[in-house]
Amino acid sequence: MTIEVNETSPPRTTPRRAPGAFVLGVLGVLIFLAAWELASRLGLVPQTQVPPATVIIATLGQQLGTSAFWISVGHTMSQWGIGLALSMLISIPAGILLGSSELVWRSFRPLIEFFRTVPGNVLLPLAILLWGLSLNSAVFLIVFGCSWSLTIQTMYGARDVDEGARDTARAFRFTTFEKVRWVTFPSALPHVATGLRIASATALIIAISAEILIGIDGLGKDIALARTAGDVNSMYALILASSFLGVGIHVVFSRIEKYLLRWHESQRSSE
User: Domains of the chain (ranges plus CATH)?
Assistant: First the structure.
């Protein structure tokens, strides 16, 4: 006589998923705006100096409907794009060279470590002396401010080449160009992508700061003019627009990094 025992497994429960990063980010922004609104409405800060968030958002909505606003955005993005592109053309080859040669790295490391700590806007008098109140001055400040960090990121990536890959390239007698193309650059690419993401934000900060200080066309100049005219609402709205622009740039570069480096372990989503 056999006794059959029916073993029933407990019902499977799907683990509750934590809110995504996007949801948490939106929640954080809403909490900040609510705190801003309450602080202004309750008189914790003077409304003449810090208007309520709803007023600033409404003013920003009005700005979005004007052509002057988008022209200023275009000027700012032009300076940002030119400065960042020149920084890439200078920094990535320089970083590859520094990372590929111990002699070159030891020779130029003190110079790089010195200049990387110098804020880009400190050279504003020099830029004005050389190019005056022009686009070239802003681009110079952007290139100077972004190039050092991007060079160092690229350099560390070039030095982080797997020894097995080096030995394989040596065994196959790769030329110098082939070593850089097939070994050094792929190893440095994740570091380069991180450096570009950081440099893109830095370039925007310097571009808007240069517009405020130099007075060339762009969002920074509009912010300075609104402050001078006492138009606090427009000033805060333009500052908020600059922040949204920075967030957009960060998201775009993060997406590009995730797509181009989908083969790298840092971008693989855990199952």
Answer: 51-259 (1.10.3720.10)
